[in-house]
Amino acid sequence: MEIDPFIFRFSIFILSIFIGYYVVWSVTPSLHTPLMSVTNAISSVIIVGAIIAALAGSSESVFNISSIFGFLAIVLAAINIFGGFLVTQRMLQMYKKKKDKKK
Amino acid sequence: MISANLSAVFYLISGILFILALRGLSSPDTSRQGNYFGIAGMIIAIVVTFLSIGNFSTSLVYVIIFLLIGGIIGAFIAFKIPMTAMPELVAGFHSLVGLAAVFVAIAAFLNPEAFNLGVVGGIKLASLIEMSIGAAVGAITFSGSIIAFLKLRGIMSGSPITFSGQHLLNLILGIGIFVLIFYLCKTQSANVFWTVIMISFLVGVLLIIPIGGADMPVVISMLNSYSGWAAAGIGFTLENTALIITGALVGSSGAILSYIMCKAMNRSFVSVILGGFGADSSADDKKEKKDQKPVKSGNAEDAAFLMKNASSVIIVPGYGMAVAQAQHALREMVDKLKKNDIKVTYAIHPVAGRMPGHMNVLLAEANVPYDEVFELEDINNDFANSDVAFVIGANDVTNPVAKTDPKSPIFGMPVLDVEKCKSVLFVKRSLSPGYAGIDNELFYKDNTLMLFADAKKMTEDIVKNLD
């Protein structure tokens, strides 16, 4: 009997939770705010679904009710992707060691 | 157009890059590189999606236009936002992830052919369950984050909103969502799908309104977790590995942060969710007590004198520092102290501020080197050997009551042993209790000098007096 592909995806999901568990525990507490903003940015990879939905319209009618939701989701996810990565970068630039700031 | 197998491999690669992005945050040295991994993973995922669909008609032009619109808005926000507003920003971003998940689920429900999920009215059962769970969690994330955003921004009062039967109502609505999803699977009815989403929006609001301002670090972490589970739900619907991996990572990340925050407040996750903390403090009773106890108060000159004659100073920042934007003035003060060969370190409680790591970012913004900043367990023993503790904008996290009074609502919460210092300088606007609504015993200790003023103004005045 063949294994349902769902089981494979579910295995990936469970293993990723374990990876997440160990990786996140090793994040230093002083970087918890950047951790939140970067997880925000990467969870916006949901944009792939939005792109699929938006491109599903035919050439004659780019906008149908389903693709409009896709386009809206693209805007929301794009705000998050750009905003999330850039604000994380801005924060991380500020973390400096003692040696760097000697005048 | 590339094959489904090849694109699956690329999605796996972008998932791995996301793992590396989080891994990089284990140290500030590697964190910037980690962020680039994350960006690379995102670019791969987006490009592969374009290539796998292979539709280069006019639609693609619109996709890119909308992508740029969102990108410009996002970049604008990222550069403009002051660091003190990070908690609101993160809450706002969570709401966008949630809403995007809802929209993608709706699009998939209306046009299942585009996602290979069957036809309208005949969507595959598993996909239908996955997309309705994704939509429901996304909707809860969206409306919950909006409430959190309004509370953090101060548009909505931070005090908990409770009414009788609240928890019962939430329970009924929660069960209702499951029943409706079951019903949806039987009927494939669009109306049921819309109802599920509407009820979920309502649940999100009801879930967050009873939670008070001091519990916001838990709420933000929790919503972070939800946004991950919503993404994972959509990932299952779209059969997309990158989305499943990311959803699991973000979901567990948020859950761990919630756990850390709850532990730092000695509160169970359940009691935070049930909310109402800080609402039941008998304020009148406390006022009376306060009048009887003498408090020593001083001015900037006294504070400057004390610190000048110290050999080691520990600074304890809290939310009040963020509100007053006092971090730059503080840095100036510390520079002056260092010139006099005084050893200065910073002590940060895990729940100082309104989100995990909030104080660290503010200090980093003010150019404080991160190796002078210590977490609670690393520095708590040093208070006994230090001359001055400078508490600026923190309150409940320094309250010795948590160690001495079993009746206190914060009893058992790990606190900074500030009172062990030879002298304590406490910058505060008034004697009012903090968010937890508990009087701070520290105010009345013999070795405490209260500095009643705005945190920024007081710090600036001390700087002047240090010359």
Structure in a nutshell:
The complex is a heterodimer of chains A (103) and B (467). Chain A is mostly helical. Chain A contains four helices and no strands.
Structural notes for this entry:
The complex is a heterodimer of chains A (103) and B (467). Chain A has 103 residues and is mostly helical. Chain A starts with a helix and ends in a 9-residue tail after the last helix. Chain A has helices at residues 5-25, 32-43, 47-55, 65-94. Chain B has 467 residues and is α/β, with parallel strands linked by helices. Helices cover 61% and strands 7% of the residues of chain B. Chain B is built from 18 helices and eight strands. Chain B has helices at residues 4-24, 28-53, 58-80, 86-110, 125-153, 166-187, 190-208, 216-238, 241-264, 269-274, 283-292, 300-308, 319-324, 327-339, 358-365, 376-379, 401-404, 455-465, and strands at 118-119, 122-123, 312-317, 343-348, 373-375, 388-392, 423-428, 448-452. A six-stranded parallel sheet of chain B has the order 5-4-3-6-7-8. Chain B has a two-stranded antiparallel ribbon with strand order 1-2. In chain B, a hairpin with a 2-residue loop joins strand 1 (118-119) and strand 2. In chain B, helix 4 (86-110) runs parallel beside helix 8, helix 5 runs antiparallel to helix 8 and helix 8 (216-238) runs antiparallel to helix 9. The chains are: A mainly alpha (103), B alpha/beta (467). At the A-B interface, helix 1, helix 2, helix 3 and helix 4 of A face helix 1, helix 2, helix 3, helix 4 and helix 8 of B.
Q: Give the C-alpha Rg of chain A.
A: 20 Å
Characterize the main sheet of chain B. 6 strands, parallel
| Poorly predicted runs of chain A | none
Mean pLDDT of chain A: 87
Mean pLDDT of chain B: 86
Number of helices of chain A: 4
Span between N and C termini of chain A?
Answer: 71 Å
Query: How do the SSEs of chain B run, as a string of H and E?
Result: HHHHEEHHHHHHHHEHHEHEHEHEEH
Helix content class of chain A: 55-70%
